[in-house]
Write a structure and sequence with these properties.
The protein is α/β, with parallel strands linked by helices. It has helices at about 5-10, 30-40, 65-80, 110-120, 135-145, 170, 175-185, 205-210, 215-235, 245-250, 290-305; strands at about 15-25, 45-50, 90, 125-130, 150-155, 190, 200-205, 240, 260-265, 270, 275, 285-290. It contains eleven helices and twelve strands.
Length: about 300
């Protein structure tokens, strides 16, 4: 792919686009907001699939358990939104992380990503919003390398280039997968966590004011977030970053008013938890600033139906 073609695909799309969400939904409290936010914009986002990503931490003893828990949480959220009709679009993902940079991990999710991308073109790409370890997407690319010219990947992963290190959950779980995606040349939008997306944080009073009492979905989101935050804050003041909403917001923000980005050569995810530099890497879009209040207003308006924009 020529750079001018890649840059054309990285322009913010106007009109309705086809999207696929790849999510480790049970891992945190923010994937739930992102899934609901995506489904709140049918005039802009046509949901083609939702795929469950693996994760490994205190909530899941293995990546397979993490993926299964995420699949179950997707079903729970669709039930809260009265959208169980979308369950045929939900696919289970990888049960392991990539063993190396050449071997895909077969799964229904990876096969579905590859299949859907092959039905698209560079003029009408599939937008893949990835908000977990990027194993499923990397596996799809390894299975069908040609999809790198038919899809745009919007990934929340890694930290900002100026941050002290790059040990970020979505990245360090499967650095091999990130290296596959970055090296593939697929049009890529990077949303760094600490130093950029970390600016989109909410407090308990905001969650109670803007979400609590506004239906079973919003009640669940508010209570789940407050419970999680208070489990570690233990009575001290806190704010909680709602990371994954920003990846969906990039597609909804046609004029670039909520998220600022710039074009740059994509960095190299290294195994030492740092970003490497290679000026020969393909260009990408790098989000460097979040207008927090504008994004919150849009999120509240879409999830509650009350226009506060």
């Amino acid at each position: 792919m020529k750079e001018y073609e890649r840059l054309r695909m990285l322009e913010r799309p106007s009109g309705r686009v086809d999207v696929l969400l790849d999510t480790d939904t049970y891992n945190e409290i923010d994937d739930q907001f992102a899934l609901a936010y995506m489904l709140s914009a049918p005039e802009k986002l046509k949901v083609m699939a939702i795929t469950a990503a693996p994760f490994l931490n205190k909530k899941a003893a293995t990546p397979a358990i993490g993926m299964e828990l995420s699949y179950g949480e997707i079903e729970n959220l669709l039930s809260l939104m009265d959208r169980k009709d979308l369950m045929p679009l939900v696919f289970k993902g990888s049960e392991t992380f990539l063993p190396d940079e050449k071997t895909p991990v077969d799964s229904p999710a990876a096969r579905r990503i590859a299949h859907l991308a092959m039905e698209h073109t560079s003029d009408k790409p599939l937008y893949v919003i990835a908000i977990g370890a990027i194993t499923n997407v990397a596996s799809a690319i390894l299975m069908r390398p040609e999809i790198a010219e038919k899809a745009v990947v919007i990934w929340l992963g890694g930290h900002a280039l100026h941050y002290k290190d790059n040990r970020e959950f979505n990245l360090y779980q499967d650095i091999a997968a990130a290296r596959v995606v970055f090296a593939s040349g697929v049009p890529l939008v990077m949303l760094p966590c600490q130093g950029v997306v970390s600016g989109f944080a909410l407090s308990a009073p905001e969650l109670e004011t803007w979400f609590a009492g506004r239906g079973k979905l919003c009640d669940y989101l508010a209570k789940n977030t407050i419970r999680e935050a208070e489990s570690y804050a233990k009575g001290k003041p806190w704010t909680r970053v709602i990371w994954d909403v920003t990846a969906v917001a990039w597609l909804l923000d046609e004029k670039g008013e909520m998220l600022y980005d710039r074009v740059m050569p994509r960095p190299v995810p290294e195994y030492d938890n740092l970003w490497g530099e290679n000026p020969q890497m393909p260009l990408c879009k790098y989000v460097y600033y979040i207008r927090r209040d504008l994004l919150l207003r849009d999120l509240v308006s879409r999830l509650t139906g009350e226009d506060v924009r």
